[in-house]
């Protein structure tokens, strides 16, 4: 049972780490280089 718990905790922490990395790449530091094009259009 202890082996199952350690494997489950390891897989869960890897999954959480991957999700955090994906969110950081999508919304974090690299996205600050993008421009907001909606402010450049005069309607």
Report how far apart the termini are.
Answer: 65 Å
Helix percent band: 55-70%
Overall average residue pLDDT: 81
| Beta-strand percentage range | under 5%
Shape: rod-shaped
Membrane topology: Single-pass membrane protein
Keywords: Membrane, Thylakoid, Transmembrane, Transmembrane helix
Subcellular location: Plastid membrane
InterPro entries: PSII_PsbN
Could you describe the 3D structure shown?
This protein starts with a helix and ends in a 16-residue tail after the last helix. It is 60% helix and 0% strand. The protein has one helix at residues 2-27. It is mainly α and 43 residues long. It has 1 helix and no strands. The longest helix has 26 residues, at 2-27. The protein is rod-shaped and about 60 Å long. Pfam families: PsbN. One of its GO terms (cellular component) is plastid membrane. This is Protein PsbN. It is found in: Plastid membrane. The chain crosses the membrane at residues 6-23.
Identify the notable features of this structure and list them briefly.
Protein PsbN, transmembrane helix, membrane, thylakoid, mainly alpha, 43 residues, PSII_PsbN
Please outline what is shown here.
The protein has one helix at residues 2-27. With 43 residues, it is mostly helical.
Write the layout of secondary structure elements.
Elements: H1 2-27
Membrane topology: Single-pass membrane protein
Transmembrane segments: 6-23
Keywords: Membrane, Thylakoid, Transmembrane, Transmembrane helix
């Amino acid at each position: 049972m202890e082996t199952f718990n350690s494997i489950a905790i390891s897989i869960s922490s890897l999954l959480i780490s991957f999700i955090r990395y994906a969110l950081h790449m999508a919304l974090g530091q690299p996205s600050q280089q993008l421009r907001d094009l909606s402010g450049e259009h005069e309607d």
